[in-house]
Amino acid sequence: MTEGPTVELARFAAELKFEDIPDEVLNKVKLHVLDTVGAAAIGSKQDWNRRLLSYAFEESPRGRSSVVNESEFLRPEWAAFLNAAYAQGFETDDYHPGALLHPTCVSLSSVMALGEELGSTGRELLAAMVVATEVQVRIGIAGNPGINFGRRFHTTSTVGPFGAAAAAGWLLHLDPVTMVSALSIAGSHAGGTVEYTQSGGSVKRLHAGLASMGGLRSAQLARLGVTGPHTLLEGKAGFFQAYSSDYDISRVTHELGRTWELLDCSIKPYFANGLIQAPLGLMHGLRTEHHLESRSVKSISVGVPRFAAMATGTIGPRPNDMTGAQFSMEYSLALGMVRGGNDYADYLGMRDLDFKDEDVNSLAERVIVYIDEEADELFPRAFLADVTVTLEDGRVLHSRGYAPGSPENALSDEAVHEKFRRSYGASTASGTASEVEAMVATLETLNSADQLMSLLRSPIRNDK
Questions:
Q1: Distance in angstroms (rounded) separating the CA atoms of residues 138 and 220
Q2: Residue ranges of the chain with pLDDT lower than 50?
């Protein structure tokens, strides 16, 4: 094989040992596992994901892999499909700023689904999680903003299959040569555009599930002898040529195994698109500090990177569905000011009103989105924003800063746990929130993946 980024990344994915992973990385992954479990608990209850559940139960033979808040078992591909879709199903899953993707919804669902079938230990689950996340993030960093901004692909569904394939390959003990084929086959599962950011639609909820399913399938096919090009990433007709308008392939392998890019993964405090997190944090800070009420607000001006303005400033102040609401800069800021929060209950309350609360819509029409030059220069390495609130009495309030939950403005561990408890409160699973927290904290001691998944399954079958 020609030695290049594809081969080097495959060798890393095949040969990483648990003992090679720093404690800092393991602790970071555990926090993201906990956050993603909470996200899946919320996502499993949403109408759009219940439709996916019906489809999966019709199509999958019964297996040994669990689905969050269900009591029956599916084959790994289908369980991963559902759990990943659940975890990304209410726009609260984690993200990586530079890579412009949501890694853990894909990583965790893939690892747990296959891990249950194989009887993988906690140490194996964690190592496979690190492999899956690092592979996704590195490819995403190398290809963005050219993947998402340039070619308008959704990075999670486009890059996610590589992470899922790498994790599955690690759990299946693929050698480096076979792992190359697993990653290369995953490239044939890459896809999914971001047109939903322009006019809404629930298809975005599928993307992480399709990525997880495609990655597991790729590793199993490679195990059975299906082969792929060993220059899939860097080749003249390879992944980056096809999917990115501007890329730096050196970022795929830069200090691979020494610098851990996954440490910059970010956890959202708000149930909205990642590009809206910084403006929401600034707006809520001003609202709390100055005891603002929405009726006192004349207008809100928001300075963001060009990509954020395009991705979240197109749907406008009157969205038609949940995806539109969670991807609308104007609507989300107005919702936070009127309701005092941007939690799942706030968005569900607006859904019950068909997103036609006049107080919210009226204020949303007075939100002005513009390009901030410094924020644009920093993007996508960091998510910076600028918010100015002009009041009816003539006062002007201003704040500038980074997205809460991002590397520049990280959430405390307790804030992550508190968010998990609120999210997990919607669960009908067997385990309590405290039981799940305790098990995730000691994940490396588990004898089997089923020990965790048994807490996340429902003791009684839900209606499909």
A1: 23
A2: 461-464
Instruction: Report pLDDT for 4.
Output: 96
Enter the DSSP assignment of 266. Answer: B
For the chain, give the number of residues: 464
Residues 145 and 289 in one domain: no
CA distances (Å), origin 262, targets 9, 115, 138, 259: 15, 21, 9, 9
State the distance between the two ends of the chain, measured CA to CA, in whole angstroms: 48
pLDDT at 105: 98
What is the rounded (10 degree) CA torsion for 250, 105, 411, 415?
-170
pLDDT per residue over 269-321, tens digit each?
999 999 999 999 999 999 999 999 999 999 999 999 999 998 898 889 999 99
Peptide bond into 380 cis (omega under 30): yes
Query: Quick one: 220 and 290 in the same domain?
Result: no
- pLDDT score, position 47: 87
Helix axes 103-118, 207-223, angle to 10 degrees: 40
Distance CA 36, CA 265 (A): 12
User: Does residue 323 share a domain with residue 238?
Assistant: no
On whether the CB atoms of residues 130 and 25 are closer than 8 A, the answer is yes
CB 269 within 8 A of CB 404: yes
Q: Which domain holds residue 356?
A: 274-406
Q: Could you tell me if 392 and 302 lie in one domain?
A: yes
CB 423 within 8 A of CB 415: no
Helix (H) or strand (E) holding 73: strand 73-74
Q: Three-state SS for 133?
A: helix
- pLDDT at position 201: 80
pTM: 0.95
Cβ atoms of 187 and 135 within 8 Å: the answer is: no
Q: How many CB atoms lie within 10 A of CB 104?
A: 33
For residues 203 and 284, give the distance between their C-alpha atoms in angstroms, rounded to a whole number: 30
**By the 8 A CB rule, do 281 and 269 touch?**
yes
The pLDDT tens digits for 151-190 are 999 999 999 999 999 999 999 999 999 999 999 999 999 9
Residue that has been written with the tokens 């990642």 in this structure: 274
